[in-house]
Amino acid sequence: MRQLSIKEIQPGMVVGQPVEDSAGRILLKPGDTIKDVYIQLLSKRGIKSVYIRDEASVEADMDSSQESVRLTEEEIDAYQTELDRRFKCHEGNKHMNVIKKIAAKYGLKILVQNKVKSAKTEKDG
């Protein structure tokens, strides 16, 4: 997942994290496909950047071997669905929305780290 400025996003790209306006209202959800009209609306609402899924994967280096581990789109979607379920009762709470964004960002990194450890164990074992 990578953060792109509103000028860099293109129709067809897939949203990686919720896009919220200044009041905390969700404008786009993870998994939404960017359309020209969305880019125009986001720009009008003052949105400066959007997190975009990068090849439907999250990569991490495996120690010094330079191999990479990828989360599948299904794994990412399952994580996001679970996160949405856990934070549903906090919708509209700006502070909890910030925590959810942090959980989304670092939770995926933790999933990748766990997958790296698992792959390394299989490789060594």
Describe the 3D structure.
The chain is 44% helix and 15% strand. With 125 residues, the protein is α+β, with helices and mostly antiparallel strands. It has two domains: 54 residues, Molybdopterin biosynthesis moea protein, domain 2 (Alpha-Beta Complex), CATH 3.90.105; 70 residues, no CATH class. A two-stranded antiparallel ribbon has the order 1-4. Strand 5 and strand 6 form a beta hairpin. Helix 2 runs antiparallel to helix 3. The two termini are 31 Å apart.
Question: Mind telling me the C-alpha Rg?
Answer: 16 Å
> Biggest sheet: strands side by side, in what order?
1-4
Kindly state the percentage of residues in helix: 40-55%
The N- and C-terminal alpha carbons lie at a distance of 31 Å
Question: How many beta-strand segments?
Answer: 6
Supply database-style keywords.
125 residues, alpha+beta, Molybdopterin biosynthesis moea protein, domain 2, two-stranded antiparallel ribbon, two-stranded antiparallel sheet, 3 helices
Q: Can you give me a brief rundown of this structure?
A:
With about 120 residues, the chain is an alpha+beta fold. The chain has helices spanning about 35-45, 75-85, 95-125; strands spanning about 1-5, 20, 25-30, 50, 60, 70.
Q: Which helices and strands occur, and which strands form pairs?
A:
Elements: E1 2-5, E2 19-20, E3 26-28, H1 36-44, E4 49-52, E5 59-61, E6 68-70, H2 73-87, H3 94-124
Antiparallel strand pairs: 1-4, 2-3, 5-6
Helix pairs in contact: 2-3
